[in-house]
Amino acid sequence: MINKKMLTFVHNFKEMYHILRPLFFVFPPETMHYFTGGLMRAAYCFPPLRAFIRKLFCVKHHALEREFCGIKFPNPVGLAAGFDKNAKLYKSFSLLGFSFIEIGTVTPKGQPGNPKPRLFRIVKDGALINRMGFNNMGVDAAVKQLKRDRPEIIIGGNIGKNTATLNEEAPGDYLCCFRNLYPYVDYFTVNVSCPNVANLSELQNISSLSEILSAVSLTM
Hints:
Layout: H1 4-24, H2 29-44, H3 47-57, E1 66-68, E2 71-73, H4 90-93, E3 100-106, E4 109-111, E5 119-122, E6 127-130, E7 136-138, H5 139-148, E8 154-159, H6 170-181, E9 187-190, H7 206-217
Parallel strand pairs: 3-8, 8-9
Antiparallel strand pairs: 1-2, 4-7, 5-6
Helix pairs in contact: 5-6, 6-7
């Protein structure tokens, strides 16, 4: 249950946010994206603060539980891929009540993604346009992070191909990511839908997608 102290904290946090928001908007959105991620990582390092955040945001109730494909989710809300591309934030964001964290999109080799600027604020709609383009440090870097520590939260692996990889060779990229991440994640998302990677949507045709799914399923 949330007590009066927690309600006071939430109220004060909202007031502080309204004061700091104009300052945040002075900086590019991608800069603030990494800044807020760093704040969450710092908060996780302090056990009292970590416990407080968890108590504030994490709710457990049987009515919220869901089961899908043999996986039991504590609730139906998770963090989709695109925020924790390199598996550096999943522990921190597990404090916010998410049922699962999906890392990635991860590619076999690290790549910078699309040229900057590639993240744009739509202030009037309270929204962002994301044109990052599979920027990540590669599957080995993600595995290294996942090996360090595993919180009690479901982890998904969102996998893709390197931008430089030809579509005809894409199954090899997906298979590489699948094999490396398999021991460390609970489920996979095969990303063939990102509009910010050239020609990726062509992999959605039946023959290409069947080849990719056959490659990964044969390794199970």
